[in-house]
Design brief:
By secondary structure, the protein is an alpha+beta fold. Helix content is 26%, strand content 26%. It has three domains: 226 residues, Beta-galactosidase, Chain A, domain 5 (Distorted Sandwich); 409 residues, Alpha/alpha barrel (Glycosyltransferase); 67 residues, no CATH class. α2 packs across α3, α4 packs antiparallel against α5 and α6 crosses α9.
Length: 741
């Protein structure tokens, strides 16, 4: 029996998230990409903080030679150990000098370099670090088009190195200190491109010595408090404490399925480290989209991720909503695509803001983040979290709904469309946001404005969520208004997006309201939100699990029969774990148990080829052709959606569906036999911790909040027009009706 516990370090492959041979370490908005020796040598390597590269060179030279890598190890996502050696001296066969670099990233970096003499006589060692920064923006580095920056100031004083770049009223600095201080005899030197610090070490036979280096960062002359200070134990650092706290609340899962156990453990670890904490609200966390290039706030990514991990930490959803509410659009700006009520696409911190999307640190060009915001707020209420805090966000939900009906529905036809406002924005603004991701079956690109199928589902669910809030508050007129809009949207969606001759939903409607007839995974999201008529669901399920779509490891983004299909593309035939987790939830919602299980098992099997974790995406080749999933070269890992997907799959298989305000929880596990017996502890619900034990004979649920009724059957996929009397929470009166969505 395997168990997912985070009480011990989890071994994580070091080559995920970067090119082959590179190592990625990440903590919050800090990440480091380097080679297997630990050296940083430009190109896409570096130490990054808030979208700026603070170190572009950090090379260790021992006795005038670069160290040779032997092995790498990452005990946690923010810490890496690089086991290296000095090459053998001239005339000798073996090296007798082991060099171990222990690196910790977070608000800068700390590195402890231990030199161990394995020889039989005392060794004299000359150790140098060659350091530089180009202060390049993240986008330049990612695209390989770094522009030289004139005026980088390199200062050396008393063994301290400071590199500074100023532009206008902004400045960025990196400060390097060491213990012990660099050797006076070697000094600290600078050139036009490099600063060098050195140490003369005397290491006895079979002895070792350690040099510790701290890399600090400053923003506009203000020091960013370092996560690790020289002389202090790593175990007492803030990242270690936060990770320990995260481990303590993470659900534990016992199962004989070792792949599932490993996958859940590593996913939980990744999610813990991808969290970004607001300095002004230290207890508020939001998940960054993924390492290495997306360690920032992304509206869509953060909303979907926090939805998926509600059983793990509901407060993450609340922090996400509060942060996005503070950044909600207030004005019309064509460049950034900001509009009143709109939820952002991404927020960046680059100095060279003209290189960012829309030429702004905040870009709003997302068609789906705004309805997802309202959806998540409604779901959070269903989980019974923080009633007053959730209700305080209702005005932001109303502003979001106003954006949907005024700006999102550009032509007043009831559907939400997108079209970028300038050539600085994204061509496609749904989750498949690459430029070639919305095409007809013939491969012809759709012409904007484009109404995506899944976005109509999100809007439908947002309308229902707002209706639920109104009914709870006894506001019948508001409830009926949004209920009626949901009913009408569902009716028209099933009429205008359905392709009766194909038996599936169109990917989108184009500028002429012509159905974009590609067979794509987007319609699985429509099952998830419940906008699909029940009589159409069997055909949708059959297509999603048919040979054109299902690879054996997951559902492709685009069917193999489509002209634009390419299994090695980003969105036109690849497999995305988060997409599949949503599809599985939609299938289970409509009662397609075996189909949902096939997707779950396929993804769990796929994780074995990626060191026990799921990457952002992988290629869409069929399992019958290649027995292991083929990696997508530029896939982020760890990545928030992918890390959250296993927990959403687990919730789907448990068929765990709470509605705490009405004191009801549905739970009717449909767990594949290979996972049994299954026990899940520390599921978080309305301030309680719930345990679920599943065997071949049935399930037991313990720890539900007081007064909450357990309904031991699957929750039916009722539509907006399906209403029933309900028992109201305390403080509510009247024979009210509630819509089940």
């Amino acid at each position: 029996m395997s168990e997912t516990t985070l009480d011990e370090d989890v071994e994580i492959p070091l080559t995920d998230g970067a090119a082959a041979g590179m190592v990625t370490l990440v903590e919050g908005v800090t990440f480091c990409i380097c080679g297997r020796s630990g050296d940083i040598r430009g190109s896409q390597e570096g130490l990054f903080f808030r979208d700026t590269r603070f170190l572009s060179r950090f090379e260790l030279v021992v006795d005038s030679q670069h160290v040779e890598p032997l092995a790498t190890h990452r005990p946690s996502p923010y810490a890496g150990t690089f086991i290296t050696r000095r090459p053998p001296r001239s005339g000798t066969v073996d090296s007798t000098l082991l060099v171990v670099r222990r690196r910790y990233v977070g608000n800068g970096m700390r590195e402890d370099i231990t030199v161990r003499n394995l020889g039989r006589e005392t060794a004299g060692v000359l150790l140098h670090l060659e350091i530089d920064s180009d202060f390049a923006g993240l986008f330049e580095v990612k695209e390989g088009v770094v522009r030289p920056r004139e005026g980088v100031l390199r200062e050396v004083r008393d063994g301290l190195v400071r590199l500074t770049y100023r532009r206008g009223g902004e400045s960025r600095s990196v400060v390097i200190t060491a213990d012990p201080a660099p050797s006076t005899a070697l000094g600290t030197t600078t050139s036009a491109t490099t600063a060098t610090v050195g140490w003369q070490l005397v290491v006895g036979a079979h002895a070792e010595t350690t040099v510790s280096i701290q890399v600090g960062v400053e923003m506009d002359g203000v020091e960013v408090p370092p996560r690790y200070r020289l002389g202090q134990p790593i175990e007492s650092s803030q990242p270690a404490a936060q990770l320990a706290e995260w481990r303590a609340i993470t659900p534990s899962v016992q199962t004989p399925d070792e792949r599932l156990a490993t996958l859940l453990a590593k996913s939980a670890e990744d999610l813990g480290v991808l969290r970004i904490f607001d300095p002004d609200h230290p207890q508020r966390a939001i998940v960054a989209a993924g390492a290495p290039w997306f360690m920032a706030i992304f509206g869509r990514d953060s909303l979907i991720t926090s939805w998926m991990v509600l059983p793990l930490d509901p407060s993450l959803a609340l922090g996400t909503l509060q942060t996005l509410a503070e950044l909600q659009g207030t004005k019309v700006d064509p460049l950034s695509e900001e509009q009143p009520g709109r939820i952002l696409h991404e927020a960046r911190s680059v100095m060279d803001v003209e290189l960012a999307l829309g030429g702004s640190n905040i870009y709003y060009g997302s068609v789906d983040a705004t309805p997802l915001f309202v959806m998540l707020l409604g779901e959070l209420r269903r989980w019974g979290l923080a009633g007053p805090e959730v209700e305080a966000l209702l005005p932001h939900a109303d502003r979001a709904l106003e954006w949907i009906t005024k700006y999102g529905d550009r032509d007043g036809d009831g559907f939400v469309e997108y079209q970028r406002l300038t050539d600085r924005g994204l061509v496609n603004q749904g989750w498949k946001d690459s430029a070639d991701s919305v095409t007809f079956a013939t491969g012809t690109p759709a012409r904007p404005p484009i109404a995506l199928a899944e976005v109509q589902g999100y809007v439908y669910a947002a309308y229902l969520a707002r209706a639920h809030f109104a009914r709870e508050l006894g506001d019948h007129d508001v409830a009926e208004h949004w209920s009626a809009k949901a009913v009408e949207l569902k009716r028209r969606f099933n009429e205008e997006f359905w392709l009766p001759d194909r038996g599936y939903f169109a990917l989108a409607l184009d500028a002429d309201k012509k159905p974009v007839d590609s067979l794509a995974s987007n319609m699985g999201h429509c099952l998830w939100t419940g906008i699909v008529d029940e009589d159409k669901a069997p055909s949708v399920a059959a297509h999603l699990l048919g040979p054109q779509m299902f690879t054996g490891f997951g559902v492709r983004t685009l069917a193999s029969s489509m002209e634009a299909y390419n299994p090695m593309s980003y969105h036109n035939g690849s497999v995305w774990p988060h997409d599949n987790a949503i599809i599985a939830a939609g299938l289970m919602r409509y009662g397609f148990v075996a189909e949902a299980q096939r997707i779950a098992l396929g993804l769990i099997d796929a994780s074995g080829a990626f060191g026990g974790r799921l990457p952002e995406l992988f290629c869409g080749f069929d399992r019958s052709e290649f027995a292991i999933p083929v990696p997508y070269p530029a896939s982020c890992s760890p990545q928030a959606w992918a890390a959250a997907a296993p927990f959403y799959l687990l919730r789907t298989l448990l068929r765990f569906d709470p509605w705490v305000p009405f004191r009801q929880v549905w739970c009717a596990p449909a767990v594949p036999p290979r996972m049994l017996p299954l026990r899940v502890d520390r599921l978080h619900l309305a301030g309680s911790t719930v345990s679920i034990a599943v065997t071949a004979d049935g399930a037991t649920v313990k720890g539900l909040p007081d007064g909450v009724e357990l309904i031991s059957r699957a929750r039916p996929p009722l539509t907006a027009s399906s209403v029933r009397p309900v028992t109201k929470p305390e403080g509510h009166t009247g024979a009210e009706l509630a819509i089940e969505s």
